[in-house]
Write a structure and sequence with these properties.
Elements: E1 11-13, H1 23-31, E2 61-63, H2 72-78, E3 86-90, H3 93-104, E4 113-117, H4 129-141, E5 147-152, H5 156-166, E6 172-177, H6 194-203, E7 209-215, H7 221-230, E8 238-245, H8 256-259, H9 278-285, H10 291-302, E9 317-324, H11 336-343, E10 349-352, E11 360-363, H12 366-380, H13 390-399
Length: 428
């Protein structure tokens, strides 16, 4: 169909559905797929094979959510790539090599939107030198893109290639750096620190939409430096920040000779909450986000003058979504209680400002928040708690002492550290 029988088809979206569990379907799978008899059984049809005189399709948009049937090279043979404007496909070594080769030959001159996404976080080969070389070659040889989305392993080198080659043209950028979490020997991911964003802002003057993860560090000068650097993007209107936090220090930065035995490991379960050091819990709780802090972050990024209320940037929309770093060294969260505990303090918000009017702040996930509030009410009661949850109550009370009957509702975020200073001292 895509190789000549539908010459006017311009948009293609492949949908993968798993087979049902009926006995007939299982038996059919075991017997194998019969040869397709064509659209008109009994009539001879010309087979669509690369190299024949059949006209190639003229797709403008192609989307492969999970895999590319027969591989990208085959599709390049039956597709007139000069018309392709949007491509969405899973990123693996096979696709990486094929797409890099296509880009190097200049066979996709009209491509403006590209989305690359790793299929999963385990067993892929994103971090190999071969795969990274293919990614760098692809980004450096494609014509500058207007819209780019990448989810998977993104090295600092790849990010530099992206900024240098596509920065001036980009209008929309969504990056979700991730890696395999089960190995100790891991290559570095790009980290969006203040210096990295300053350099990025200098090269992306037309960017209007941005989605990136940043590290939430209790509103200290390094986190504040990131918000101030984002203010340097002159055309930014829509921003989504995934605020990454962890419970306790990450093991990859732990020095047992200096810091002693690492006290978080895979052996942690929901009932082992009392084994998490109190200092770690208190730091985690004090890293929470409330509406006041969300408004303060929006004001800092948008450059709102607290006296005149003037706005120095075009920012109109800000989404703040706290996300816990889950790795091989993290306490378990597969049981819901710990997730509810953290959900009461780590809230998601959307901040909006239209035509320089007053900023509105809306809380996202009201149902989940209500469930977390119900769990906290239970923990703060005198009823028997789940094993280990007493430590959550103690950590909370150490930060926000009891003053009312429902004092657990009266917690507040730490304010941002707005002291002026050199923010470029932080290394990327």
């Amino acid at each position: 169909m895509v190789s000549g029988l539908a010459p006017n088809l311009t948009h293609f979206y492949e949908i993968s559905r798993g087979p049902s569990r009926e006995l007939e379907v299982t038996q059919a799978i075991m017997l194998g797929k019969p040869k397709w008899q064509g659209f008109f059984p009994g009539k001879r049809e010309v087979e669509s094979i690369a190299g024949t005189d059949l006209p190639r399709n003229r797709f403008q948009r192609v989307v492969f959510p999970s895999y590319v049937p027969q591989g990208l090279k085959h599709w390049a043979q039956v597709t007139e790539l000069s018309n392709l404007r949007c491509l969405d496909l899973p990123w693996d070594l096979k696709n990486a090599s094929a797409l890099a080769e296509i880009a190097a030959k200049g066979e996709a001159p009209s491509l403006q939107r590209l989305r690359l996404c790793s299929e999963d976080s385990y067993g892929n080969d994103d971090e190999t030198e071969e795969s990274q070389a293919a990614m760098d070659l692809l980004l450096s040889t494609l014509n500058p893109l207007h819209r780019l989305e990448i989810a998977g392993y993104i090295s600092p080198r790849t990010f530099d290639v992206l900024v240098d080659h596509h920065g001036e043209n980009l209008r929309y950028l969504a990056l979700k750096p991730s890696r395999e979490e089960i190995s100790d020997d891991r290559n570095p991911l790009v980290v969006f620190s203040a210096p990295v964003i300053h350099r990025f802002a200098a090269r992306c003057s037309h960017l209007t939409h941005l989605s990136i993860p940043i590290n939430r560090t209790r509103g200290d000068k390094y986190e504040v430096g990131i918000y101030r650097a984002l203010n340097k993007l002159p055309s930014l209107q829509y921003l989504s920040l995934q605020l990454m936090y962890s419970v306790g220090p990450e093991k990859q930065f732990w020095d047992e000779e200096k810091d002693g035995e690492y006290r978080l490991s895979l052996e942690f379960t929901e009932g082992d909450a009392d084994r998490i050091p109190m200092a770690y819990l208190q730091e985690t709780f004090s890293n929470g986000i409330d509406e006041v802090l969300a408004r303060e972050i929006f004001s800092l990024i948008s450059g709102i003058n607290p006296i005149s209320r003037n706005v120095s940037s075009k920012l109109r929309y800000l989404r703040l979504e706290p996300i816990r770093k889950i790795g091989w060294n993290a306490p378990a969260v597969w049981v819901t209680q710990f997730g509810w505990t953290l959900g009461w303090l780590y809230r998601s918000f959307v901040c909006r400002s239209e035509d320089d009017q007053e900023v509105t702040v809306n809380t996202l996930g009201e149902k989940a928040l209500a469930r977390a509030g119900k769990h906290w009410r239970y923990m703060m009661s005198d009823e028997e708690k789940y094993h280990g949850e007493e430590v959550f109550v103690e950590a909370f009370q150490n930060l926000w002492p009891r003053k009312t009957d429902e004092w657990w509702r009266k917690w507040s975020s730490l304010p941002l550290d707005l002291e002026e200073g050199s923010l470029l001292e932080e290394t990327s």
